[in-house]
Amino acid sequence: MSGPPKLLGLAALLCAVVSPSRARAELKTLGVGDKMAMVRDQFPPEQQARYDVFKVRCTKCHAMARPIAALRTGTSPVTGGVFDQDTLKKYVVKMMRKPNSGIAKDEAREILTFLSFALTLTEDERAHMPPQLPPSESAEPPASEQRASDSPTPSPEPAPH
Question: Which long-range contacts (CB under 8 A, 24 or more apart) does 72-81 make?
Fold first, then answer.
């Protein structure tokens, strides 16, 4: 019965030797907050042109930090919905239909292709992240939604000695 285990071991060895090692990919960014942007040079030339369309069209309505967060976490920062290869088209079409987006159908296809590629760069990042709660399930409501009675009561200051 030593035949099959040896074959499996040999197959695993061949896969390790023949398959190129996969370098850890990550989405490179510069800046913080609303000034955050993706590093254009990290993308192959055909994706750089698509990135340019994405950058112009998608930052017309919101900061690039929003799609970067969605790419990195796999969760839409606004709705808390899943942001992955299966839902990308839904998001791009939704943005294309916004009245002032200016996104034409051919540009939407380019943006979709770019986001799909960018999403592959963040697979390792998402694999090591804890699950995200949708905004409606977060522990505390935003400060704008807190009632006065929900505010924490300040602790009394100790009396001077």
Answer: 72/27, 72/122, 72/125, 72/126, 72/129, 73/126, 73/129, 73/132, 74/122, 74/126, 74/129, 74/132, 75/132, 75/134, 78/135, 79/134, 79/135, 80/132, 80/133, 80/134, 80/135, 80/136, 80/137, 81/134
Contact 78, 66 (CB under 8 A): yes
Asked whether the CA dihedral 6, 9, 11, 14 is positive or negative, the reply is negative
For the stretch 98-144, pLDDT in tens is: 998 999 999 999 999 999 999 999 987 777 666 555 555 444 444 44
The neighbouring-strand residues paired with 37 are: 30
